[in-house]
Each structure stands twice: as structure tokens, then as C-alpha cells.
Amino acid sequence: MRFAAELVAHAAQRMNPLGEREISLRGYKIAAIENTGTLKDGYDCVDLSDNEIKTLGNFAPSPRLGTLFLNNNRVSRVDGDLGAQLPNLHTLMLTRNAIEDLEGLGALASCTKLSLLSCAENPVTRCAHYRSYLVAKIPTLKVLDFKKVKPQERVDAKKLFPEGQPPTVDLRAMAPKPPPRVPGGAPPPPPGRPAGLGNLTDDQKAAIRAAVAAASTPEEVDELERQLRAGIIPG
What we know:
The protein is of the alpha/beta class and 235 residues long.
């Protein structure tokens, strides 16, 4: 299906638990990001999960858009000018895509407000120095693959990838390693903890966005929203 005005008109829209205007374009078999001017920069959050998108980019200028979900697609490359298209993008979920090389992710350096990023379950995560590369290239990152970026990580990352200088390691030699064989599935998420929703901290907001990104069905998203309304925040 093509990204068009008719699709936008019929897509589910709501105010999400963070008070953001969100549109859900999940599961429409969208093959490419195009015609995004039809969104009229009217959304804080756009969910394009469970589609067939191969390239992240080609957005009409959208300064309002801060959160973008692209889980379960086929994304293998990122436009170098994504930051100009989405100047206020702070949360980007690329879990379960097809990104293989570090240099392809380097384009995310143009997103100067990006603070929460997930590339989990992409081949690129098996590259040597993957995490250090992104921490060095995107200094605004606070959470990468659902783990906080620690101060020492920043120090170590800058040693490997000093700003304005050639890296001290060979990027061409950092091919993804074969995936490890792990019996069973992933561990269940940690239990939530009661808290008020009146004044959320940045960490709490990040936890909520991560939980929404990890949801694989609309029903799971609805259940998360019910928990939030009851005052339970993922922790």
C-alpha cells in the first residue's frame, strides 16, 4: 500500500499516554516513506511499525514530529539529511530491521536532538564497537537499545571515534558477527511500579516510549495504556 492522503484519513489517531498526538500506520504493508506532506506536520508521534519500508527518510519537513516507530520493517539505510527533515526527532525505534553496517547509521548524527534510539535485533548490533560508534556519533543519546548511556561509555567512545579525526579502529573490519544461539526466548520485562503520571521525569518518559516500542500488537499497546492510567509506569 502507498502512503497517501486516503490512508492517513482512515488511520487510527489518538492522544497517547504522554499527551502526544499520535497516528498509527502499523501493518499496512507500506513499502516506502512518501507523500508525508499529507500528515501536515500534525503529529508528535508517528507509528510506522510492521510495514515493508527499506529506507528511513524522504519526510516532508516536520518540525513537530518527535517520536518515530519503525519496528518490524526492512530498513537498511538512513537518509543523510534525516535531521533536516525531522529537526526535533528525539525518539527513534528501529527494532527488528535490516541495518547491517555502522556507517549507514552514521547518518543519524544529523538528528541533533535524538536521545532515545533502538536498533535492537538488527545485524549491525553484532558489529564490533557498535555501541561506541553510535555514542560517539550522536552525543545527545541518553538511551541506546533500552540501556542508559553511561559517562564512561562516552569517554571510551570518543577515544575510538574522536571528533574531527579518523577513527582509531577500522570500520571496514567491523562486519556483523554471527548471531549467538540462545535457548528460549527473551526474558520478560521487569514488573512495573506504581507512580503518579502528573509530573513524569525524562527517565519515566523514556521507559514508557521503550515499552510502547516493544509492544508487538495494538492490544499490548492498549494494555500498557490501561496500566499507565492506573499509575503504573514501566521500570
